[in-house]
Specification:
The complex is a heterotrimer. Chain A is α/β, with parallel strands linked by helices. Chain A contains six helices and six strands; from the N terminus they run βαβββαββαααα. Helices cover 40% and strands 23% of the residues of chain A. Chain A has a six-stranded mixed sheet, with helices on both faces. Chain B is built from twelve helices and eight strands. In chain B, strands 2-1-3-4-6-5-8-7 form an eight-stranded mixed sheet, with helices on both faces. Chain C is an alpha/beta fold. Helices cover 36% and strands 21% of the residues of chain C. In chain C, the strands form three sheets. In chain C, strands 2, 3, 4, 5, 6, 7, 8 and 14 form an eight-stranded mixed sheet that branches. In chain C, strands 11-13-12-15-16 form a five-stranded mixed sheet, with helices on both faces. Chain C is globular, with a radius of gyration of 21 Å. Classes of the chains: A alpha/beta, B alpha/beta, C alpha/beta. Chains B and C meet through strand 2, helix 3, helix 5 and helix 12 of B and helix 3, helix 4 and strand 10 of C.
Chain lengths: 197, 281, 378
C-alpha cells in the first residue's frame, strides 16, 4: 500500500445530508425532527437526525443535521452538505463552507442579508410566517415547506401529517398554511430559475 | 414499668424476633440505649401483629444501623446516610411492605440530611426511628449535627462552635406527617410512639434520645450509661405539660410524646392514582 | 408504545423503550444533561405499564432507590451523566457487593467535573470499570446507534439479571441526542432473562449460596425469605464477616461469576477484517466514524477493517488478540485522552504498531480525521 489514501477517496454517494441552522428558539430542531419523521416514516430510507446547541434554551447558534440513505448510515452527522437551510446571518456565514459545490442553499431573506453565493433560494420565511400564516413562530414550518419543494425528499402529505402530529393543539391551521406558503414560494423560485436557464 | 411483673413473657417476645443463629454478642457497648430502642421496637411490632415477612428494616452506617442485622425481618444494611433513599425504593416498589428505617443523628442529619428532608417532603409511608445520641459512636466520638453547642467531642476538643439540629422540628417543617420524641428511659412511651408511627400512613419520625456514655458521656462528664439515662428522666417533659411552660422553663428540657401530625396524602397512594389513570388496559 | 410500532426516537428514548421491553418497572433518577430525556421518557411511560418513576433529590438517592427496588423484586434502571455517575459510584459499589441487578446508563459528556454538559465525550470509559473503590469485576456495554441502544439496553438488563450485578451502559451525547427510526420489538423477538428465584424452603435458604455457576438465587423481600443484605463483606448467609477464610470466598465470587462466563458477555462487531492490514478499534459513536472511514478507504482499495467493542468491560482480550493477528497496524480511536488504548496495548504483541486517534475538544471524531490518520500510518 504505497499509494496514499487521501488522493483516492470519494465522498460516499449513497448519503443525502441536510443541515437546518439558525438560532435557538427558531425551531430548527423541531423542523429537523418533523422532516426526519416524514422521510423515515415510509420505511424506504434510513434517516438519522442530530443536533448541536448551547446550554441556553433561547438564542445562541442552533443546528440540526439530517442524514438520509438507502443503506446503513454509518456516520450519524453530516460530512459534506447536500442542502443547507440558514435562518440567520450567523448560520449562513458559519455553515456555507460545509455545503457541497453543487449543494442547495435556502436562506430566510427576512433575516439574512449577505449571501455568499448567487446560487440559492431566498424566502423571507419569518416575514411570511408573521404576515401570511399568522405567527412568526411558524417560520420554521414555512422553511419546511420550502425544503419539501426544493428537494422532494418527502411528500407534502407526509410532511403535513408529521407536522400536525407534533404541533401543539390549536396551531394546526397556522402550521398547514405555513407549509403551503413555503412550498408555494419555493416552487415559484424554482420555476423562475428553470425559465432563466 | 411493668417489666418486673412479667419478665418471662417480655423476654419470650424479644427472642422470637432475634435472628436465630446470628451473630451475638452485638456491637453495642454495655449499657448502650440502642438495645432499649430495639426492645421497644420489637414490642411495637408484636403488638401490631405484623408478620416478619412484611417488615423491611433498612439502615445506614453507624451504631444504630447495626440494629436490623440482629432481627429476623427482611434487613437491608446500606451505605452511610442513604438508608432513606434505599427504603424509598423498597417502599415505592412494594407499597404493601412495612418499611422501617433505623438511623442515627450522623447518618440521618449530616451525610443523609438531604435525603431526610426529601423523604419527609414526599410523605412516603416509611417510619424512621432516629436514635439520637448526639455523637458519632462507631468512629469514636466525633461531633454530629445534634452535638450541642459548646459540647466536647473528639473533633470539637475546644467545645462545639456550631449550632445543633432539632430533628423533630426539621421533620415537621419538611412535611413529615407524624413526629414524636421519646427517650430510652421512657421505654413504654417509646414503644407507643413507634406503634403510632408505623400505623401512620405517611412519613413518620420517632426521635429516640439515647446515651453514648462511652464517648459523649465521658467527654462531657455526663457520667455512665445509667446516669445519662437518669438525666433523660429528669429532663423529660410530656408534650401536654410543655404547652403550659415558658421558653425559659423549657430550656434544656426534652419534650416527649407526639409532637406533630398532619393529614397529608401519602406518596405511594398518590402515584397509584397516576397509574390507575394512565395505565394502558 | 406497543410492540411492532416504528417511531422516530432519540437515543435516550430508545434506551427507555429497550428497558421497558426488558421488563423495567422502576426508575429513579435526577435531571442531568445530556441524559435527562431518559428520566423524562421513563416518567411518561412507566405508569402506562403499571411501573414506577421517581425523581430523587440527587443521584446518590437515585441509585440507592433503584437498588432498594431491585431487592424488593423490580427490574430497575437509572440514567445519568458523568457528574451524576461520580455521585453514584459508592452505591454502585454497594450493588456489586450485595449482588443486586441494576442498570446504570451514563450518557457521557466532557469532564472532569461539570465539564461540557452538552458536548460529547467517552472519557468515563475507565470509570465504568473502576468507579467504586475495592475489587470487583464490572460489566459495561457501549451502544453505538439509536437503534442498537434499544437492543443493547435489553442486553444490559439480561446481563444484570443473569449475573446479579450492576451493568453500566455507556452512551454518549451523540447517540443520546440523535434520532432515528426505531422499531419496538415484537413480544418474543428478544430473549428476556430474569433473576433466578429461590426454590429452597426459607429454612434452608442461604442468601449468597455458592452455587455451581456462582449465581445465588435472589428472592424479593416479602416472599418469605428474610435475609440480610449488607455492603459489609459478608458470608454466604449475608452476615458481616471479618474472617480471613470467608473474605476471599466473597471477593472471588464477585470476579468468577462474571469471568467464568466472559465469552457469553463479550460482544464485538467486526467489519472488513478478513484481509485487513490495518484495524481500527473503537466503541460507541466513534465506531460509526470508523465504519464510515473504513468503507471509504475500502472503496479506494485499502485494506482497513473495524473492530467495535459492544462490550467494553470485561475487555475482550482474547478476541482482540486473535482478530489483530494478521494486522500490522492498529488504530485506537476514542473521545478521550486514551482510556481503551492501554487495554489494547496489554494484549497486542510488540511487533505491531499501535496508533492512537483521540479527540477531546467536545466534538466527535469525523471520518475525515480517521482517514487522515490512516494516511499518516499507511
Amino acid at each position: 500500500m504505497c499509494a496514499k489514501l487521501l488522493d483516492k477517496i470519494e465522498i460516499p454517494v449513497d448519503r443525502y445530508e441536510l443541515r437546518l441552522s439558525g438560532s435557538g428558539g427558531q425551531g430548527m430542531i423541531f423542523a429537523s425532527v418533523v422532516l426526519s419523521e416524514a422521510i423515515g416514516g415510509t420505511g424506504e430510507k434510513k434517516v438519522v437526525q442530530s443536533q448541536s446547541y448551547g446550554p441556553e434554551a433561547r438564542g445562541g447558534a442552533s443546528k440540526a443535521d439530517v442524514v438520509i440513505s438507502a443503506n446503513e448510515i454509518f456516520y450519524p452527522k453530516a460530512m459534506k452538505l447536500d442542502f443547507l437551510l440558514a435562518m440567520t446571518q450567523e448560520a449562513v456565514d458559519k455553515y456555507y463552507p460545509d455545503l457541497k459545490d453543487d449543494g442547495m442553499l435556502v436562506v430566510d431573506t427576512a433575516l439574512v442579508t449577505e449571501i455568499p453565493t448567487d446560487n440559492y433560494y431566498g424566502i423571507p420565511c419569518t416575514y411570511l410566517a408573521r404576515e401570511e400564516a399568522g405567527h412568526a413562530m411558524v417560520a420554521n414550518i414555512v422553511a419546511l415547506g420550502a425544503i419539501c419543494a426544493a428537494t422532494g425528499l418527502a411528500s407534502m402529505e407526509a410532511l403535513t401529517k408529521a407536522v400536525l402530529n407534533r404541533a401543539p393543539k390549536g396551531t394546526e391551521d397556522k402550521n398547514r398554511k405555513a407549509l403551503e406558503i413555503g412550498y408555494r414560494e419555493l416552487m415559484k423560485l424554482k420555476t423562475e430559475k428553470e425559465a432563466a436557464k | 414499668m411493668t417489666t418486673a411483673t412479667k419478665p418471662k413473657q417480655k423476654s419470650d417476645v424479644f427472642h422470637q424476633y432475634l435472628r436465630p443463629k446470628k451473630k451475638f454478642p452485638n456491637v453495642w457497648c454495655p449499657g448502650c440505649g440502642i438495645g432499649i430502642v430495639m426492645g421497644a421496637f420489637i414490642r411495637a411490632i408484636d403488638k401490631l401483629g405484623l408478620s416478619k415477612d412484611e417488615v423491611v428494616l433498612v439502615s445506614g452506617i453507624g451504631c444504630s444501623s447495626r440494629f436490623p442485622v440482629y432481627l429476623d425481618f427482611n434487613s437491608l444494611h446500606t451505605t452511610h446516610g442513604r438508608a432513606l433513599p434505599f427504603a424509598t425504593g423498597v417502599k415505592f416498589s412494594r407499597p404493601d411492605l412495612k418499611v422501617i428505617v433505623i438511623t442515627g443523628d450522623g447518618d440521618a442529619l449530616a451525610i443523609g440530611g438531604n435525603h431526610f428532608i426529601h423523604a419527609c417532603r414526599r410523605n412516603i409511608d416509611i417510619t424512621a426511628i432516629l436514635i439520637n445520641n448526639h455523637i458519632y459512636g462507631m468512629t469514636g466520638g466525633q461531633g454530629s449535627p445534634t452535638t450541642p453547642s459548646e459540647a466536647f467531642s473528639t473533633t470539637t476538643p475546644y467545645g462545639n462552635v456550631e449550632k445543633h439540629f432539632e430533628p423533630c422540628d426539621l421533620a415537621a417543617a419538611a412535611g413529615a406527617s407524624y413526629v414524636a420524641r421519646g427517650t430510652v428511659y421512657h421505654a413504654v412511651q417509646l414503644e407507643k410512639a413507634i406503634t403510632q408511627a408505623i400505623e401512620n400512613r405517611g412519613f413518620s419520625l420517632v426521635e429516640a434520645i439515647s446515651n453514648c456514655h462511652t464517648y459523649f458521656g465521658r467527654l462531657n462528664r455526663k457520667g455512665d450509661g445509667l446516669a445519662m439515662i437518669q438525666s433523660f428522666k429528669d429532663r423529660a417533659v410530656p408534650v401536654a405539660r410543655a404547652g403550659k411552660m415558658s421558653e425559659e422553663e423549657l430550656e434544656d428540657k426534652l419534650v416527649i410524646g407526639k409532637l406533630h401530625t398532619t393529614g397529608a396524602t401519602e406518596f405511594c397512594d398518590e402515584y397509584q392514582k397516576v397509574i390507575d389513570a394512565h395505565k394502558e388496559k | 408504545m406497543s410492540n411492532g410500532t416504528r417511531k422516530l426516537l432519540q437515543g435516550n428514548a430508545s434506551c427507555v423503550h429497550g428497558a421497558l421491553y426488558a421488563g423495567m418497572r422502576f426508575f429513579a433518577g435526577y435531571p442531568i444533561t445530556p441524559s435527562t430525556e431518559i428520566a423524562e421518557v421513563s416518567s411518561r411511560e412507566l405508569p402506562r405499564v403499571g411501573g414506577k418513576f421517581i425523581q430523587m433529590e440527587d443521584e446518590i438517592g437515585s441509585i440507592a432507590a433503584i437498588i432498594g427496588a431491585s431487592i424488593a423484586g423490580s427490574k430497575v434502571m437509572t440514567g445519568t451523566s458523568g457528574p451524576g455517575y461520580s455521585l453514584m459510584v459508592e452505591n454502585i459499589g454497594y450493588a456489586y457487593m450485595s449482588e443486586t441487578p441494576v442498570v446504570v446508563v451514563n450518557v457521557q459528556r466532557g469532564g472532569p467535573s461539570t465539564g461540557l454538559p452538552t458536548k460529547v465525550s467517552q472519557s468515563d470509559t475507565q470509570q465504568a470499570r473502576w468507579g467504586p473503590h475495592g475489587d470487583y469485576t464490572a460489566i459495561a456495554i457501549a451502544p453505538s446507534t439509536v437503534e442498537d441502544t434499544l437492543t443493547e439496553t435489553i442486553r444490559a438488563f439480561n446481563l444484570a439479571e443473569r449475573f446479579r450485578t450492576p451493568v453500566t451502559v455507556l452512551l454518549d451525547e451523540v447517540i443520546g441526542h440523535s434520532r432515528a427510526m426505531v422499531k419496538i420489538p415484537e413480544e418474543g423477538e428478544y430473549e428476556i432473562i430474569n433473576r433466578v428465584k429461590a426454590t429452597s424452603s426459607p429454612e434452608e435458604f442461604e442468601a449468597f449460596e455458592m452455587t455451581p455457576n456462582l449465581i445465588s438465587p435472589m428472592p424479593a423481600y416479602g416472599e418469605g425469605y428474610r435475609y440480610n443484605v449488607s455492603g459489609l463483606t459478608h458470608d454466604t448467609h449475608g452476615f458481616p464477616t471479618n474472617r480471613a477464610d470467608e473474605i476471599p470466598i466473597k471477593l472471588n465470587k464477585l470476579r468468577d461469576k462474571i469471568m467464568n462466563y466472559v465469552d457469553e458477555i463479550t460482544k464485538l462487531r467486526v467489519e472488513f477484517m478478513d484481509d485487513a492490514d490495518i484495524a481500527i478499534i473503537s466503541y460507541g459513536s466513534v465506531s460509526r466514524t470508523a465504519l464510515q472511514a473504513a468503507s471509504i478507504a475500502r472503496q479506494a482499495g485499502f485494506k482497513v477493517g473495524c473492530i467495535q467493542l459492544c462490550t467494553i468491560w470485561p475487555f475482550p482480550e482474547k478476541e482482540i488478540k486473535a482478530l489483530c493477528e494478521n494486522c500490522s497496524k492498529i488504530i485506537v480511536g476514542e473521545l478521550n485522552m486514551g482510556q481503551i488504548v492501554e487495554e489494547v496495548r496489554k494484549v497486542i504483541s510488540d511487533d505491531k504498531e499501535i496508533h492512537t486517534l483521540q479527540r477531546y475538544d467536545s466534538e466527535i471524531l469525523t471520518p475525515m480525521q480517521m482517514l487522515e490518520k490512516l494516511e499518516e500510518v499507511l
